[in-house]
Amino acid sequence: MEVSWPCRNESFTKPINHATLGVSRCVEFTSPIRQYSDLLAHYQVKAVLRGELPPYSNAYVQAVMAVVNLLSTQAANLKYTLFRNRVPLPAATRNALPGIGASIFERTRACHSD
User: Fold this and answer.
1) Cα–Cα distance between 16 and 1 in angstroms, integer?
2) Most buried of 32, 42, 63, 105 (most Cβ within 10 A)?
3) Residue 32 half-sphere exposure toward CB, CA atoms < 13 A
4) Which domain holds residue 40?
5) pLDDT of residue 112
6) Where's the RNB domain (predicted)?
7) Pairwise CA distance, residues 35 & 101, whole Å
8) pTM here?
């Protein structure tokens, strides 16, 4: 049996093997509030469970997931770069999140300071 190990930020459009459960087809998703890819998975699975065809074609899901994976990777890289270099957020960004933006970033910087 072939085993697939998806990376943390990688999404697949086909079911993957799950070695621990011993099944050859597995889909994993969480709350659709957190990630658009999970929302797509909920729609697809719910339609199949109702005996309907999935609402989105394989080509559409692949195209959306390519964009989601790219943006997710770019966001993770930006976050890593900002924290590694301890780049302060621009004032406009801090002010866009009153009471949240600056305080979270400052606390994070304090935790990562040398």
Assistant:
1) 11
2) 105
3) 8
4) 16-85
5) 46
6) 12-50
7) 21
8) 0.49
Q: What's the total number of domains in the chain?
A: 1
Report if residue 104 sits inside a domain: no
The token duo for 104 is: 């979270």
- Angle at which helices 36-49 and 58-85 pack, to 10 degrees? 150
Q: Is the Cβ–Cβ distance between 64 and 41 less than 8 Å?
A: no
Q: What is the pLDDT of residues 3-41, one digit of tens each?
A: 344 444 455 666 666 677 677 776 666 665 567 888 888
Other residues' Cβ atoms within 10 Å of the Cβ of residue 11: 20
- What is the rounded distance in angstroms from the CA atom of residue 23 to the CA atom of residue 2? 11
